[in-house]
Amino acid sequence: MTESLRGFKRLPDLPEGTYLIILAAAIYGLTIVLTKGALEQIPPFTLLCIQTASSVLVLWTIIIFQGIQVPLEWNTLKLSLIGLLEPGLSYVFAVFGLSLTTASNSTFINTTEPIVTIALSWLILRERINFPLIGLGLLACVGVAFISIPNATSIGQGSIWGDLLVCLSVLFASLYAVTAARSVQRLHLVALAAIQQSVALILFMIMLLGALFLGLESFEFVPAMWGSLLIAVTSGAFGYGLAFLLYLAAVRYLPASRLSLYLTLTPVFGVISAYLILGERLLVSQGLGGSLILLAVVSISRVPHE
């Protein structure tokens, strides 16, 4: 599978790894739409566990059938714990934060992730950050804000505690981005994805049990849920499994700061998927936001990096 992923680098005109991260963003965008549909019948933490378990099952199946080695040593354990950052704590704080604040607040805070990742890349990885990169990062953030918040009237109306939790979610996601850059050379990509998501799944299951015990979430299966369960399993296998592998493969070629800019394409693909699958209406502001993101992505692709 790794060799097939490397085949993308032979495509012309864009830096190595660019096609990998763009495809990952497309899958992430589609997964958001599928998750939105599944949430109509499956509670958040239950859905999170189903999707992650589906991905983990697929990844470990690949490991077994391909005979991929997963060394039982301290270094493997350390690499697996990175999964506590993302999807682990990042997703947990995102769910809790969204339950306490407005969707507009949450989306607006999430638009800052590229800039946070660029800052952490400079502080932790000592990546060389120039003004064009910062400017394009800000441009992409503005684009994400336009495409994700067509109605900004509810911004500022949520709970401050919910907003802080969403901020923590962004911080953990950015920390994972810079940490992953140091881990992809130490273990097979499939093994790395499997152990990190397995650790995240354990965290999600603990949170789900706590939510069920406290009465914060309940789940009762009825035959009408088969469709939503199928969507949950499929979106987990592709949106968490395949997209995660593509992201890790791209990390081998591109610095974390640039990867964060390419991932701003996710809401663009999400809006397009929502239009095609759910029949949602496209707004002028979303078209403007998508144009700004595309401008930032095309521009950063033409700026050489060391």
UniProtKB/TrEMBL annotation:
InterPro entries: AA-Vitamin_Transporters, EamA_dom, EmrE-like. The keyword Membrane applies. The chain crosses the membrane at residues 17-35, 47-68, 88-108, 129-148, 160-178, 190-214, 226-247, 259-278, 284-303. It is a multi-pass membrane protein. It holds the Pfam family EamA. Keywords: Cell membrane, Membrane, Transmembrane, Transmembrane helix. Residues 18-148, 161-301 form the EamA domain. It is found in: Cell membrane. Belongs to the EamA transporter family. This is DMT family transporter. It comes from Gloeocapsopsis crepidinum LEGE 06123.
